[in-house]
Amino acid sequence: MVLYLGEERVRELLNWDQLISTMEVALAAFSLGRVLQPVRNMLTIEEGKRYLGIMPAVADDAMGAKLVSFYPGNAGIGVPTHFAMILLFRPDTGEPLAVMDGRLITEMRTAAVSAAVTKYLAAADSRVLALLGSGVQAHAHLQALSLVRRLEEVRVWSRTTAHAERFAKQHGAKAMTSESAVRGADVIVTATSSLEPILKGKWLKPGAHVNAVGSPRPTWRELDDAVMANTLVVDSREAVLKESGDVILSNARIYAEAGEIFAGIKQVPASATTVFKSVGIAIEDIATAKLVYDAASRRG
Questions:
Q1: DSSP assignments along 268-298, one per residue
Q2: What average pLDDT does the segment 100-120 reach?
Q3: C-alpha to C-alpha distances, 80 to 51, 73, 104, nearest whole angstrom
């Protein structure tokens, strides 16, 4: 019987520490060529407002596909900008195993990947986090990054001041202008649907680390050219060169994939100012779905 797992059940079964470790293993396998995965096929329904993504992947121990709706037009109306469903199969026999809600998986695996990269690239004594964006990903990144660095100060900015103030009140953060939030911060997260850069390289202190997870379209940007001139790490070279305006429009040189760092193929100097550009790839979703399915099977 095919198992169905709704969002609340997925929430019960997902553990941040396990998820961060699973993302390291999955992305290392991807960069080592052990994952079969095309770049996401993104169908444009209405430019700037409605998209449907199709994301299959096959690994040694997991096979499946995610369908994800990306509706940036939902922002501000109380409806999430992302919804998703994931189908999981046995890779040896092709038998279907589970259908599960993918909205929370998308939210958590995105932040877990950033946390894994931050663990390797951010200074060990990082204490100040700046969040540009105050939505779902800001919340998830605060949770995940708190597990890999001892954060003492959290700053937040949003294009809607009231949203930043609400986030600050809920999480004990400080609402600030974008420049004030970034200057002196050790780790910066950009999680918006901005069409133009919201983060300027001149604001970054030497040795800072940036996790850029928003604006996932080839003509949209969160980061200016000065940010992109730093040491650039991506989740997938092929994917960012098709999907990321930050990479495409800046002509930035990609130093490494995250999986190459996790696998020990490449290392980044400890003093480097680093940027992780994440567009999200299918193996992250399928590996997370397998983690959820295995947990559900153990619990019965």
A1: --TT--EEEE----HHHHHHHHHHHHHHHHH
A2: 97
A3: 13, 10, 11
| Superfamily, domain 3-105+283-299 | ornithine cyclodeaminase, domain 1 (3.30.1780.10)
- Can you state the angle between helices 136-145 and 161-171, rounded to 10 degrees? 30
Helix (H/G/I), strand (E/B), else coil: 197: coil
CA-to-CA dists, residue 253 to 115, 231, 248, angstroms: 23, 8, 10
Q: Determine contact, residues 66/42, Cβ cutoff 8 Å.
A: no
Q: Which residues contact 77 (CB under 8 A, 6 or more apart)?
A: none
- What is the average per-residue pLDDT within 259-271? 96
Q: Which of 90, 91, 171, 89 is nearest to 131 (CA)?
A: 171
Cβ proximity of 12 and 102 under 8 Å: no
CATH superfamily of 110-280: NAD(P)-binding Rossmann-like Domain (3.40.50.720)
pLDDT at 241: 98
pTM of the model: 0.95
